[in-house]
Design a protein that fits this description.
alpha+beta, about 170 residues, five-stranded antiparallel β-sheet, single chain, Thiol Ester Dehydrase, Chain A
């Protein structure tokens, strides 16, 4: 794979804003987790695509945490940035905050890490730019991402047992 010039994480920083409408809420008036996950995936995809300047696809979503509910009528702000870049993949971190429309109070509601892979028009993996860090915090976060990547790859095939059980249950219907 050809080498691609490194980029700074701030160059692909992505921010999106939504309003939580009733169609994306449950019977308690709080956001459906799946709606929030969809917004996270879109925000992270834009960030990854800005970094790679290629078509990207979601490879995994890790460390998805719901910290607080988002109520109907709240503004929802998502922020994504590249945490680490590997040969053909990138780890993107996303935070989600709610904002009360009257008081302006903001609260962290959700956080997630996603891995994206860059692909060419035929679906073959492409090299992505490396990262040029400005701070020690960025370098430390990238080192943590390398550790997470190693762990993720090591457990990749360990899901075979639970997957076989679910598939077996599907065949039993």
């Amino acid at each position: 794979m050809t080498s691609v010039p490194a980029k700074r994480p701030k160059d692909s920083l992505t921010e999106m804003t939504q309003i939580l409408l009733p169609g994306d809420a449950n019977a308690l008036g709080a956001a459906f987790g799946g709606s929030v996950m969809g917004w996270i995936d879109i925000c992270a995809a834009v960030c990854a695509q800005r970094h790679a300047r290629q078509t990207v696809v979601t490879a995994s979503m890790d460390d998805l945490h719901f910290h607080a509910p988002i109520k109907v009528g709240m503004a929802v702000t998502l922020r994504a940035r590249v945490i680490a870049a590997f040969t053909t993949s990138m780890e993107i971190g996303v935070t989600v905050h709610s904002e009360h429309p009257v008081t302006g109070e903001r609260q962290l509601t959700t956080s997630a890490l996603l891995t994206f892979v860059a692909l060419d028009k035929d679906g073959k993996k492409l090299a992505v730019p490396g990262l040029e860090f400005d701070t020690d915090d960025e370098r430390a976060a990238a080192a943590d991402a390398r550790d997470r990547r190693t762990e993720r790859l090591a457990r990749k095939d360990r899901g075979a047992r639970w997957l076989a059980l679910v598939l077996q249950a599907d065949r039993g219907r």
